[in-house]
Amino acid sequence: MPIIESTRAVTRWTTRIIPVILVGAVSYATFAIVGRVCSSYLINKRSELGPAIVILVLYFLLFLLMVGTYLRTVATVILDPGIVPLGPLAIERRKRAKDNRRQGIQGHDLESRPYYGGIDFDPDSPGLEQFYTKDVFVCENDGRPKWCSQCCNWKPDRAHHSSEIDRCVLRMDHYCPWVGGMIGENSFKFFVQFTTYTACYCAVVLGAAASSIRKEIKEGSPLDPHFIAATVLAAFFGLFTFLMTVTSVRYIILNMTNVDMLGSRTKVHQLAVRVPRGTESTDKFTVVTYPLPKPEEVTNGRSNDTARPRAVESRGVSPQPNRVSPSSRDDLATRTFAILKTEPGENPWNMGAWKNWQSVMGTNVLDWILPFRRSPCVNHESHESFYPMGKVLADVLARYNLTDLAFKNGAGLEMKELRRGNRS
Ligand SMILES: [Zn+2]
């Protein structure tokens, strides 16, 4: 699998230099705390073995946890950043652009120009079925999922295109040069563990160095410059990582990301919610039926090769008159969705603080503290939605009087009914 890097040269170099800075800072902190504070000052000069042992145990415990979570985060953002696969057109175009660059062809041929990555109106567009086999997904006005014109793919709920790495990222949070890549749903848990342990590690360094300075001032001996340098370093990195931790924990509890927060107070989410087949549009909502019909199924013989997004049945019009003998694939597996809107500022994925926390950090304390298992929210196998939804969805259904209708007819039931109907 190719390594995902920033598209900007400056960021790529920053990303490569930062680990060197971090190794330098941690090596110096180890020298200052183990060599100067514990060994030279507390043990040799003041014979305070007890406090020295406490500091050393805390120091190395947090050191291990910090390094472990750092490596886990870096490995995840580089090897498994949680990106959405490119669409066929984007794969083809990027491959050609790469070949052209390799051959030194630049700018003057068609293939190297920015390409048109508009919505794929093919009813069988690859990837569409991953949406309409769920009960709820985020959609546009025509009932199709969101489309990324750079990646030429359908964007799963909460995925965003990152211009930094030029790919769509699942539950994207931010690009972090400190860990060398994009923080998204795969790495967020490890990232929060890393910032938490680093803040605690800095607190131990700060406490050990600052208390030694206090003792030196009390006894009137000259100040060790390494104590002062360690205090300053620990205060700087400690404050930075502490603020990062507080912000991240707040996002986890609210089930938000840095990207979700942008304009979140006024943001309206548009959801396609599965309703029984045959449900018609009303003056409150329109419906869309998947699989989308082929143009000849929509148009009563008129040619319509621009493939208008047919499936939004206009208000008050039955879906049937426009359709000419639906194909058997449609008979067996059509799914109808009502297109509904949340109120501004509502977050459909907010399940309450406790469940939000568990969806990212895991369901038990070991998961919370150790960087082994991935977040439960990275599992997208549920047929309900890409991410579990909370009370807002029930509120939205109630507002549209769909509480009793939504999700009621399972696909299996519909299939059985159809087969029975066909036999009779
Ligand atoms: Zn994209």
Question: What does this 3D model show about the protein?
Answer:
By secondary structure, this protein is of the alpha+beta class. Helix content is 47%, strand content 9%. Helix 1 (9-45) packs antiparallel against helix 2 and helix 1 packs across helix 6. The site of zinc ion (ZN) has 6 residues, from strand 5.
Bound ligand species: zinc ion
Trace the largest sheet across and list its strands: 1-8-10-9
Low-confidence stretches: 108-112, 300-311, 314-326, 410-424
Note the quaternary state here.
single chain
Classification by helices and strands: alpha+beta
How can the largest sheet be summarized?
Answer: 4 strands, antiparallel
The domain count comes to: 2
Written as H for each helix and E for each strand, in order along the chain, the element string is HHHHEEEEEEEHHHEEHHEHHHH
| Strand content range | 5-15%
Mean of pLDDT = 86
**Rg, Å, rounded:** 28 Å
State the helix count.
13
The gross shape turns out to be: elongated
Give the termini separation.
53 Å
Number of strands: 10
Helical fraction equals 40-55%
